Amino acid sequence: MNRIVRLIEAEKEIELVPDRDDQQAPRDVTGINPEHLRMAEALLFAASEPLDTKALATSLPDGADIPLLLKELQSIYEKRGVTLVCVAEKWQFRTAPDLAFLLRKEQPEQKRLSRAAIETLAIIAYHQPVTRAEVEDIRGVMLSKGTIDALMEIGWVKIRGRKRTPGRPVTYGTTEAFLVQFGLESVSHLPGTDELKAAGFLEALPPSGFDVPNPSDQLGPDEDPYIEGEDEQPELSTGGPEPL
């Protein structure tokens, strides 16, 4: 009898020992590894700059499902005080838009863009890659060199390439800082016709044939990459003088 009791107790002890093949990281019903989720959250919270998926993959364990983790974090923080947003194809925690007033600080504005600079920025953003002569042709007036210099000094515009045309004029485009400043994932997310109408920048019935161009951050078929240190070729102005 005692021998039977000892055998039963031994079998109970064996059942309490977990199978080593089952000792894997737990997953919830969505298939997400909770520990990977915590690690991704910590990395994004501590980062001083937006992180792309490659940077996250470098720090997270092998096999971590980065897109699924980011989607889950976006869902978790959707209605929180901070939200996870994608800007310039990188990810960053930001204050919820409706709470921005809490963090607003009144201070003197250091520099204000001129009307010419705002128009030039809009043309470059929507028509990139675009040359100085093409900007002047669209605006209908000659563009002072200082206008583009000011936009480049702010960090919103850069030289991106050279056109394969006589004179090899440089082409301009927007920067990652521009996307971050305006909360855009890429240049393809610039407001379209409907958004511009809703904001009052376009008439309800725009001129016949009017269309919002499709900008691209990729080199065009007639564009070569810009090599740092190349001498910039002067371009001929096509319009009239810049109004004062």
- CATH-defined architecture of the largest domain: Orthogonal Bundle
Kindly report the spatial arrangement of strands forming the biggest sheet.
4-3-5
The termini sit apart by 109 Å
Q: Give the % helix.
A: 25-40%
What's the helix-strand series? HHHHEEHHHEEHHE
**Structural class per helix/strand content?**
alpha+beta
CATH class of the largest domain: Mainly Alpha
**Mean pLDDT across residues:** 79
Q: Unreliable runs, pLDDT <50, ≥5 residues?
A: 14-24, 236-241
In percent, how much strand structure appears in the residues?
5-15%
**Biggest sheet details:** 3 strands, antiparallel
CATH superfamily of the largest domain: Winged helix-like DNA-binding domain superfamily/Winged helix DNA-binding domain
CATH fold assignment of the largest domain:
Arc Repressor Mutant, subunit A
Please, how many helices? 9
Tell me which oligomeric state these chains represent. single chain
Q: How many domains?
A: 2
Principal-axis shape equals globular
Describe it for me?
The chain is of the alpha+beta class. The protein folds into two domains: about 1-100, Orthogonal Bundle (Arc Repressor Mutant, subunit A), CATH 1.10.10.10; about 115-225, Arc Repressor Mutant, subunit A. The protein is about 35% helix and about 10% strand. The chain has helices at about 1-15, 35-45, 55-60, 65-75, 115-125, 130-140, 145-155, 175-180, 195-200, and strands at about 80-85, 90-95, 155-165, 170-175, 225. The strands form two sheets. Strands 4-3-5 form a three-stranded antiparallel beta sheet. Strands 1-2 form a two-stranded antiparallel ribbon. Helix 2 (about 35-45) packs across helix 4 (about 65-75) and helix 5 crosses helix 7. It is globular, with a radius of gyration of 28 Å.
